[in-house]
């Protein structure tokens, strides 16, 4: 009877243990995936097996194991102490997986050896006879066999692409990407990646990353391969894929270069997604990526684009990166767009203290500020200072000046700006040109109207609608 009681007690203990394990696992799942951005997308795009493997990897990542870190050179420089503590606490990379490729045997081995011989001797005529026997397995082994010569590797890949594209897979694309990025052939890498990503399915980015990751050790690759993948998504304006790749890279201890981060921020800002650019800026600041002045310029530009000029000034002052003329130009333009010309003038004085020389963009921003305040006289003074400094105004600045003079009835100033535009073969807007001619006509300067019309016609930049202005003299 005693042993039966012990048995019942043991079974009860096992049941309680199982219940605790299940509840603990559920809690762990919630914890791990609660911290993961885009989990809903992950669940919907992964099959059961892949989802389970990613889940296991993330659960293992929550424990403190010894990790292998293979960070980019730009990320190896020590961050400040507060950043360092945060990184050590929150970032523990997952160990890199290693996938082995079965060795070729029999006919496969013969084929690989013969094809390799023809390839190193550049005997493409004999290679053409082997097209029928191409398989993904054989292509992979040939690429691995010649990977130390990126020229031959790339030529062979393009040959397969042309002759038998069905034998190319994500794995073969990954291998050639490793080969090219190791040799700093990033444009060629991006060209290859674009071809498979443009028509890709929703789960392709994860599959491609997985293929690159698992062939990394096999190809003795460089972290630049992930950087190239991230930058390709940025250039293709696939913002969600770029961010997903950024997080996946971080999971395994890789980081994009600051140049790629800057490129991504630039594309976001140009696409009117300054909000995402600033969110990404915050993300890379918390990582080990060493930022540069161009990164600061992007952040300042993004703040200004969102109308947060004061925040942009604050960002420049607290960052610790030495601002350049581009940083100041972005701030000055942001202030001038809001009509805050006094604050902009203060920044111009600061340029002198920093030994920075104003350029065309600086003057254009200041001129725009005076135009916003409807002060054409001051705008024209700045324009003259700009010319004396050896800077040349761009087309938008000249058109803005011309429009401001006409709106304020200063037609003499408008004529001077128009002639500057004609010297540079810039076509004035038809509405503004007509307004100028009508204004001159009202002041009895019909001869000036005719003269200007002839000058415009002689430069072959006559705007549409200028015929109406000419008719004033008929």
Automatic annotation (TrEMBL):
Spans through the membrane: none
Entries under PANTHER family matching the protein: OS02G0170000 PROTEIN (PTHR46862:SF5), OS07G0661900 PROTEIN (PTHR46862)
Intervals holding PPR repeats: 222-256, 324-358, 359-393, 394-428
A matching Pfam family: TPR_24
InterPro entries named among the record's database cross-references: PPR_rpt, TPR-like_helical_dom_sf, TPR_mt
Claim: Repeat is one of the keywords in the record: yes
Protein name: Pentatricopeptide repeat-containing protein-mitochondrial domain-containing protein
UniProt keyword annotation of Cell cycle present: no
NCBIfam families from the UniProt entry: PPR
Top-level taxonomic group: Eukaryota
Protein's organism: Escallonia herrerae
Chain ranges of the Pentatricopeptide repeat-containing protein-mitochondrial domain: 226-314
Keyword list, A-Z: Repeat
